[in-house]
Fold this protein.
Amino acid sequence: MTELELKQLLSRITRPDETARTAAHAHWASLAKPLGGLGRLETMLEDAAALTGTAELVFSRRAVLVLCADNGVVAQGVSQTDQGVTRAVAGNLAARRTSVCQMAKTARCEVVPVDLGMAGEPVPGVQNCRIAAGTADFTTGPAMTRQQAVDAIAAGIGLVRAQKAAGVSSKAKRRRTTSFRASGSRSPVTAT
């Protein structure tokens, strides 16, 4: 994906549907429970309604995508572990031996470990979408090139699209969309 293609994609992102958010809020508020009793779960469902354009959500097939990458700044001793831990976690994700995998299994979610920029050789069982072998140390220069950042965003979009094509998504009965949070944004956005 080029930067121009990314800008064109971003220009097609629509604002969340506040009518759907309001309908979802009304639905959850009408159930026999204390108002707001489900805490953040209720607001997440309201966000999902706003992103999909309907309060009638269906989560029949779900996935947790875990994007694994290494930060070059670890060379400055700012982390309690080295980059080998990323590889160990990725290997354990692939072998389904992590707490994420156990929680996902309980919720009947698939776990998809993805190498988006790990240092070292690829890890068996981890989907390879590597942009680079880790980022550079940002204390000595840019962590990534602009094109690497665009490529990382494109990889994320591609992963979501592939999951949707495989039938994994938060499906709305009315409209299908791809949703993500813009970097640094507190408001989710939707691309149809």
In short: Residues 105 and 111 are 8 Å apart (CA to CA). The first strand starts at residue 13 and ends at 14. The chain is about 40% helix and 15% strand. Helices lie at 3-11, 18-30, 40-52, 84-94, 99-106, 146-165.
